[in-house]
Amino acid sequence: MTASGAGASVATHAGVACAFCRRRKRSCDKRLPQCSACASRNLECEYSRIFAPNDYGPQQANTSREWTSTQPLLTASDSNPTFPAVYFLDNRVFQHSRMQLPRTNWTVPPIIADYVGDPLPLALQYWNKVHSWMPIISKKRFYDHSLNPLISRDVDVVLLLSAMRLLLWHPAQEPCPETEYMAIRHAIIEAENLGVFTLQLLQAKILLTIYELGHALYPAAYLSVGSCARFGIAVGVNQCLQATNLSTSPEAALETEEKKRTWWAVLMLDRTMQLGNPTQMLATEEPASSSYLPADDESFESGNITREPFRASSPASIEMGMLARMSQATFILGRVLRFQARSSEFEDEAFRESERLQLDKTLRALLNLVYIEGSVKRIAVCAQSSICYSALIALHDPEARRTDLEQFDMKLVLLGPVVKEMTWASGIWFSERLVNISDASPFLLFWAYQAITIYRRLEARYGNETQQHMLLMKEKLRLMSLRWKAGEAYLQILNAREITMM
What we know:
57% helix; 21 helices; 2 strands; two-stranded antiparallel ribbon; CD2-Gal4; globular; mainly alpha
């Protein structure tokens, strides 16, 4: 069928199911302009504007990426200046000329604005549910600037709010925000291409990446981590690991601290993503040992940064904040991954073993600190412990390459106590539902999965005790799947391992 005089194909079907069928999770024949289900009920059939062909005319494409190239989500509120190419072509000239990146003015579409809704209760819910385990957004700066009713909200702030709401969703809620997720994702890409280079847009990208990671949206999650890294470098937040601005002004110190926390979150995502496939390259460089860790959380929450933070190489201290310890665990995990990536063929065996033992000692010291500090919120500590445990496993059992009896026995001796500690920690935090599942961090998932795979290897030697621990960790994954769909994915992988006897 062709359009009269144009020879172009006229769309007879939409790219996605209509709103009525999506809400009821039923099959939709996607007929245009009205599907059969809506027609039989005499209902108005609504297709998402970001997927449906424009006015049922010539169909451009059915994929969201092709749609964005012909029908942008963001619209200009007024004339916007061109992004200066010299910023990338020769940044020294850009700095020498004291040029500034232009301030652009774009408007988000109704699908995103309506999804955000009232930002004040949204922000409060975010602080209670997510901020406790990923405190990278300054409350003071957010309320003073982003939520100030006297200041118009730029597109980066609206996209950050939309990513905050998206991250609050969990599988028990209906419906799944698939359309909103795609709209937010493509709007962020458009904002990048239009030159919106701000900290708030980077934070929106990070929250979107955590959403993808937590609900096993691959390869989007993996690619988003690399995108966060490149964008963060372009914005310059990676340079804040060597700065504090304590002597400048309280506002400057708080802004630097927020940037620093944001970059540590990128490093955390990059290194934890590597655990599932150690052969992939990291998207970020290793921070220097002299890099600053985040300041203590109380100072960050109050907006008053007065003390110089600890360094990445500082001994573990009870005075460190929760995110500082998570960041230090991330730093050590990066060293472990780099250690395992190096070829041992030309290295002195004694020196390599000494380095391995030092990394092991450092990780265990950080773990011991976790249990000493009882004042820290348990779920926050658990996420930090997860990184430490994963680093220990990556250190002593990288991909299980050797299968000889001597190496296998050594791994059992080293990893047996580690997995037992992991189970003990899970028993504390999950007995009688002491942890609110809706507040749980997705960084806990891989920890439980690793423990179960090791228990299966220990089962032949330790029998019933190992089986009991394995069941406890499986229950942890099942509970976590109520919040994060990646938990279901890990359980399916474990089932496949059992069937194929891996």
